[in-house]
Amino acid sequence: MEAKAAALEKLNASRPNILELSRRIHANPEIGFEEVKAAAWISEALSKAGFEVKTGLCDLPTAFSAKAGKGPLHVVICAEYDALPGIGHACGHNIIAAAAVGAGVAASAVADEVGLTVTVIGTPAEEKGDAGGKILLLERGAFAGAHAAMMVHPAPFNALTPKIIAASMFEVQYTGREAHASAFPELGINAADALTIAQTAIGLLRQHILPTDRIHGIIINGGEAPNVVPAHTAARYIVRGQTLAELERLRPRVYRCFEAGALATGSKLEIMGGDKPYSEMVHDADIAELYKRNSELLGRSFPDIDTATQRAVASTDMGNVSLVIPSIHPMLGIHSLPAVNHQREFTARCVTDSADMAIYDGALAMAWTAIDLATESKLRDRLLSAKF
Ligand SMILES: [Zn+2]
Ligand SMILES: [Zn+2]
Q1: Which of 99, 115, 139, 257 makes a 20 to 30 Å CA pair with 123?
Q2: Distance 334 CA to ligand 1 centre (A)
């Protein structure tokens, strides 16, 4: 098909710039909502490629949109570019960003010819776990008018429709009362004990939750000095369930564990955030099938997900997009094993030849899939009739 050949040619011409962009983002990791450089570099690359760019989209300084083409079918490609605190691009969002630019540029070459509008939306702070960029952008109308949305994500192995579950991150704060820990301990209210009790209760709760539930967290403030009874402690926790409904069944049980800490010690408990959870992902089967076909043409294969990889569930705010717009979120293998996402070793694997190949394959498979969506009439009509 001529349009696909033209998209391929365009991607080949842009390839050095796109791979360089990936490496530049990787070398300058920025955490969620602080991705100032990455957002500027990505939108600059798209602007140079002829896209109409809006920065500071929906009052989010590190979000942007970049639009090309005037066709009736509007396809959104999501770019992520936030890193993790301390371990850099250990989730390889530099690959996601570069692949999104590549897909956008390749598809833009034929957009008008095939009847496509393509918008790359820069979506900050995916790693946040609550009120992520896509959730805020969805609420504020950035996805209005889109008929389909897609993105790719690096992983140890290819996966067409990875299991993506609901998640909610929240912060817990206890307030007690300081006292000399040796001379006047009876005057203290120990906010660190409150956290210990909560964590013990959560440990016991684990026997009685679904095998698909997840509870995990960190203490971000455990006290100031061993000779002062801690008056202020804080933790960040994430609870996950297969669906938003299962998550909401688990959440109050976990909150009660935190309440137990407050009750036992007399500390005051405050729970903040958690009100904009990530939802489960619904992969659009037709779009996924087209992506699979296009990826297989590039030599990628999607073996059936075995038991081990089935356990490897994660969450993303792309889930929230998928509940309102037909979406896909395939994983791109980068030959990282034994390194897996959120490890330092994975960070190093996100700028290898294999990572570059993933960018190229992901970009082309998304561009070709967008062309298919605009030209395969049955699917196109379904997408057009369900405008968000
Ligand atoms: Zn991640
Ligand atoms: Zn990620």
Answers
A1: 115
A2: 15
